[in-house]
Amino acid sequence: MAELIFIEGYPESMRASIARVVETRPRRIGKLPPQMTPKEREEILELCHPDYAPGGKRTVKVGPNRGDLMPNEVADLLEAYPLIEPGRVDLAHPDHDVDILIIGGGLAGTSAALLANDHGIPADRILLANKLRHGDANSMMAQGGTQAADRPQDSPIIHYIDVMGGGHFANKPEVVRRLVEDAPGVVHWLEELGAVFDKDDKGLFVELTGGGTSRRRLHACADYTGMEELRVIRDEFRNRGIPVLEFYPAIELLTDEESKVVGALLWNIETEGYKVVRAKATVLATGGFGRLHIRGFPTTNHYGATYDGPVMAYRAGARLRDTDTVQYHPTGAAYPQQIIGLLLTEKLRTSGAQPLNVKGEEFVFPLEPRDVEAAAFIRECYIRDNGVTSPTGMKGVWLDTPLIDILHGKGSTEKAFPAMVRMFKRFDIDMIKDPVLVFPTLHYQNGGVETDPQGATNIKGLFVAGEVSGGVHGKNRLMGNSTLDCMV
Fold it and tell me: Which residues contact 410 (CB under 8 A, 6 or more apart)?
């Protein structure tokens, strides 16, 4: 029997490239490549971004968006038959009759429940149904932060311009306006609930920039922002005694003779039994589609991110928008094999970590918009052939994380990214001393169910919140606007 070899840390085949990173580091400190011009950005997107690659999309054949181009995996789901025919379930005698049914238990769904209660809906007239446990969601995995223009040198107008530019001006303006105007209040609300944001010695927010942003407005809780925000929101939810059904994914929306959504059919994962919920209003907050693994990419997403919400809404007649674009986060883990695709927050680059090729050379401005940055990584690996190859054959580029301590002082990395430092130490990699290997990973569903500023769809009785909604991000989302989007 062949001897099994366990690799700890980086193998010798990668150490030669790391040595070049160390060698070039002194001359790179304080120097960055120039930002791309708008023309250069469009050229690299068309050349290297997966959205532009042939063969991965087709037009959907049925429904309100018939003829629209979208990923094959999405079109397949929208064209599929329902899991169950309504005639097989007794809809005349609902198991629950509530004012508001919320489907999804991440930041968006849990926030919606609290806000409904704040506006006069009694707790016992609200029902939250979640596919897994309450809080098992992409929200729990969000790292970077939440954008809010709350400094004298910033404003919602500047935030608005950044969001529109990042989305290639395909965004829905009135929805973007709601996002940026509500943002400072969202951060204040989270603080009142007990969220602990990063602050300086004077008690002021430590605010950072992100790719495609022109001001420092990112409010972070170390590198586990989503977990901290969901912690305080879920605690408040539980304190109010709002009912929740766990392990009860919705499999179909229910409509009346006037096509109004009047609730949903739920299915219990454990017992395989059904529950009928009648509701005056239904809120979809089911998150994204990372687990469809569009074009075969790994993903940052939670196991529950399977596009349930838009599919159910589409069958009920809701329109979708911006379904032709997918966000691939530039810095997904590319080594070791056990964590491929997991998110390495943009905050690393905000803090000074530089993307480098196999020669230890810079090749792109670190904070281009995410779609442009991801395309530049792909070009470096597969067109210029300057990528680093792991023992499994996967290509990637270095992210020079040791620069963070060099630029900000010893201990800065461990203070700002404690969860990530621990994650890499499990594999005998010290990201404070050595760079980490990264490659784009499927991260976010840019589009979704079209909504107005109040979250209403074109179907009466149906509302959407968070990543399931479409319009606010256009063709590309900026860092820190996803957690914000969940709470406005």
Answer: none
Residues 155 and 216 in one domain: yes
| pLDDT (mean) for 222-235 | 97
Does residue 464 contact residue 171 with C-beta atoms inside 8 Å? no
pLDDT at 364: 98
pLDDT of residue 7: 54
Are residues 438 and 460 located together in one domain of the fold?
no
Residue 486 has pLDDT above 90, yes or no: yes
3-state secondary structure of 260: coil
The CATH number covering residue 36 comes to 3.90.700.10
**468 confidence band (pLDDT: 50, 70, 90):** very high
Residue-number span of the structural domain to which 43 is assigned:
12-48+328-443
Amino acid letter, 83: L
Cβ(172)–Cβ(336) under 8 Å? no
pLDDT band (50, 70, 90) for residue 88: confident
Do both 153 and 268 map to the same domain?
A: yes
**Cβ proximity of 224 and 143 under 8 Å:** yes
In whole angstroms, give the CA distance from residue 413 to residue 472: 32
Check if the beta carbon of residue 483 is closer than 8 Å to that of residue 190. no
Q: Is the pLDDT of residue 167 over 80?
A: yes
Q: 3-state DSSP call for residue 31?
A: coil
Output DSSP code: residue 245: E
Q: Could you count the other beta carbons within 10 Å of the beta carbon of residue 2?
A: 4
pLDDT of 1 reads 46
The residue-averaged pLDDT of 413-426 equals 96
d(CA 163, CA 212): 8
The number of beta carbons lying within 10 Å of the beta carbon of residue 101 is 29
Q: Which residue is it, tokens 């204040």?
A: 188
Tell me the whole-structure pTM to 2 decimals: 0.94
Which residues participate in catalysis according to the annotation?
329, 349
Give the CATH number for residue 266: 3.50.50.60
Q: Which of 283, 282, 301 is nearest to 291 (CA)?
A: 301
Cis peptide bond upstream of 54, omega within 30: no
Instruction: Answer yes or no: are the C-beta atoms of 192 and 185 closer than 8 Å.
Output: no
Nearest to 316 by CA among 260, 368, 371: 260
Average pLDDT, the chain: 96
